[in-house]
Amino acid sequence: MFMKKFLAGLAAVVMAVTIVPSASAAGTTLLTNVRTGHHPTFDRVVFDLTGAEPGASVTRTTEPTSCGSGKPVSALGEEFLEVRLQPAAAHENGHSTYPGSRKFETGLPTAQSVAFTCDFEAVLSIAIGVNRKNASYHAWFTTDGPLRYVVDIDHN
User: Fold this and answer.
1) Three-state DSSP class for 148?
2) Residue 27 in contact with residue 52, Cβ under 8 Å?
3) How many other C-beta atoms are found inside a 10 Å radius of the C-beta of residue 49?
4) Would you put residue 140 in left (φ > 0), alpha (ψ -120 to 50) or beta?
5) Is residue 73 a contact partner of residue 113, using CB atoms and an 8 Å limit?
6) How many CA atoms are closer than 13 Å to the CA of 70, on its beta-carbon side?
7) Percentage of residues in the chain with pLDDT exceeding 90?
8) C-alpha closest to that of 36 among 108, 142, 115
9) Could you tell me the pTM of the whole model?
10) CA-CA distance, 57 to 32, in Å (whole number)?
C-alpha cells in the first residue's frame, strides 16, 4: 500500500515538472554570445541570440548599476550605452546560455568594455563602456540568419 501511494505521488510530481515551460518556450530570447570588433570608422558589439526578436532599447548613463542591488558596476568607459533586451535572458532553467565573462575589457579604442547590469525576470541589460561622452551609435537587429542585436559606436 505504501509503495502504491508513493508511486502515485511521484507520478504527480513528475507530471507537474514536465508541464512547466522553459524560459525559451515562454517566449524569452536567450543570449548565447557577445562579440566585439574594430572597423575603420566604428567599433561593433554584437549580441548573438536565439528565439524571437525581443524588445530593445539603448540609453546613455554615466554610471551603470546592478538591477538587483542598485550598486555601481565598475567598468572602463567615460560614458555607457546600456542595451536592454526584454524578454531576454542569459540563462535558462538555472543554466547559463552565455558561456563568456559578464564583465570584460574589449581592447577596442571606442567600445572599451562590456558589463552585464541585469539578468533577472526576463530583463537583460548590458552596458557598453565608451571612451567619450555623446558618442554617436547605431543599433539594430539582424534577422537574415541567426538573430543578432548589433551596436556600432562611431570613432568620431
Assistant:
1) strand
2) yes
3) 23
4) beta
5) no
6) 0
7) 77
8) 108
9) 0.82
10) 19
pLDDT of residue 15: 33
**pLDDT greater than 90 at residue 156:** no
β-pairing, 29-38 vs 88-89, is parallel
User: What's the longest Cα–Cα distance across the chain?
Assistant: 77
Burial pattern 6-40, b for ≥16 Cβ within 10 A else e, equals eeeeeeeeeeeeeeeeebbeeebbbbbebebeeee
Domain 28-154, CATH class in plain words:
mainly beta
pLDDT tens-digit series, residues 15-42: 333 223 334 445 889 999 999 999 999 9
Residue type, 42: F
Over residues 39-59, the mean pLDDT reads: 97
| Non-local CB neighbours of 43 within 8 Å, separated by 6+ positions | 36, 37, 106, 108, 109, 110, 111, 152, 153, 155
- Residue for cell digits 505504501? 2
Q: How far is CA 62 from CA 105, 123, 130, in A?
A: 17, 20, 10
